[in-house]
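Good morning C.,

I know you're traveling, so I'll keep this short. The sequence:
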Amino acid sequence: MPRPGHRIPAGVLDEPPRPLSSDAEEYLSYLAVERGRASSSISSYRRDLLAYEQFLEWRGRRLATVDSAAVRDYLGFLEASGLAASSRARALAAIRGLHAFVHAERGAPEDPTADVDGPRVPQGLPKALSEAEVARLLDAVRGDDPRALRDRAMLELLYATGARISEATGLDVRHLDLEARLVRLFGKGAKERIVPMGRPAAAALGRWLGEGGRSTFVASTRRRREDAAALFVSARGTRMSRQAAWTAVHRYAVASGLAEKVTPHVLRHSCATHLLDHGADIRVVQELLGHASITTTQIYTRVSQEHLQRAYVAAHPRASATRASGGASP
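The tokens, ready to paste straight into the viewer:
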């Protein structure tokens, strides 16, 4: 449990933070340039490191003098502040990376996070939609106006390929091969993968790229070269942002009565779960989703096993104790 010493006087951490240390800035540059981390990840790390260095400043510590006790002290402060275990684990990941970088690149005598245990984060199961719910979500897109054509194509693509929303909004038209029904996706760390799609997704994309679709949004707009190449564009002819894409997804989630079930990753979760439900090999699913580790993909096998367990209990005459005792001879 956090000690009373973790309490910080009111207002101390509400002051505008000072700029990051030069070591932290170099670390973030390393992540962006050498490791190819996405800008959203860099922004998250920046926020975590700003808070960490502000805490160290209040404690009168410099990055070079931090020991494991100081790191634990900070984690205790985060816990006492009510931060969720998952957020504390993310903060520790940023801190670990920074100290490992300073140790390796700046010659710091030791890495103070080496002996620090992270918070235990409950491993929640992804909340996948059922196949019927996916159909409801897709059917909620009505009409043949350019926005409807675009949104239907985007939803079909997300479910068909398991693409992350950032991967979908980053697509250019040239990344599609509708005849072969393939799409080239660029995942975390700019890793490239070729993913197949089904006929409904290819057909929806074809309609969006045909007359009365994408060309309507880009026809009379002066635009940057990056926008001109984008697959999914706004009514202004600019590349759709991640936020705009998920606003569109949420609009149809509300229309289909699934607003409480649809989260930013739900179509990706649903794609993976349904593939495994229908017998896809876990290594194939790992490749399709672009998971660096098979451990990440194995989470979805737990979802499928729960689905099989429910189906078994519902259908088998001797699956439950009640049925077994009720049907047995005296």
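Safe travels,
E.
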